[in-house]
Amino acid sequence: MPRNTEQRNAIREVLVGTDRPLSAGEILNGAKQSSGGLGIATVYRNIKRLIDEGWLIAVDIPGGPTRYEVADKDHHHHFVCRVCDRVFEVPSCPADLHQMTPVGFKVDDHEVVLYGKCPDCQGKRS
Q1: 3-state percent helix, strand, coil for the chain, nearest multiple of 5
Q2: Is the same domain home to 10 and 64?
């Protein structure tokens, strides 16, 4: 079992404390506050280990960098702010996917991404 280092603990704290998908850069910026010598290579190495352990999952948003979030969450979707580029969780899901599916097809998975402005950016120009 991999050991918990100060750096890995700082990365975990950022991901749990932020409660939204974060890019490697966002993880680095947050974790540097409690683990000053942290670099991007160490962040990526720990992200890989946390994914391998099943604690973390990758969130791929078309046209953006991969983000990462804690793996034990219920099914949800994401909202991308077009101004600040942050990604947020959307707890609900479209009502009837089967009604949207073409006749003869069977849905086995889906992903919905919403785009717009977060509350912090609604007064800003895009």
Answers
A1: 35, 20, 50
A2: yes
Between CA 24 and CA 48 the distance in angstroms is: 11
pLDDT of residue 88: 96
The pTM score is: 0.83
Residue range 103-112: mean pLDDT, rounded: 88
Classify residue 126: in a domain, yes or no. Answer: no
Give 59-85 pLDDT, tens digit per residue: 999 888 999 999 988 889 999 999 999
Sheet order of strands, 77-81 included: 87-90, 77-81, 113-116
Task: In whole angstroms, give the CA distance from residue 77 to residue 96.
Answer: 15
Contacts of 87 (CB under 8 A, 6+ apart): 20, 21, 59, 61, 64, 67, 78, 79, 80, 81
What is the CATH number for 26? 1.10.10.10
- Provide the residue range defining the domain that includes 91: 77-121
* Same domain (yes/no): 12, 65: yes
27 contacts 41 by C-beta, under 8 angstroms: no
* 11 & 53 share domain: yes
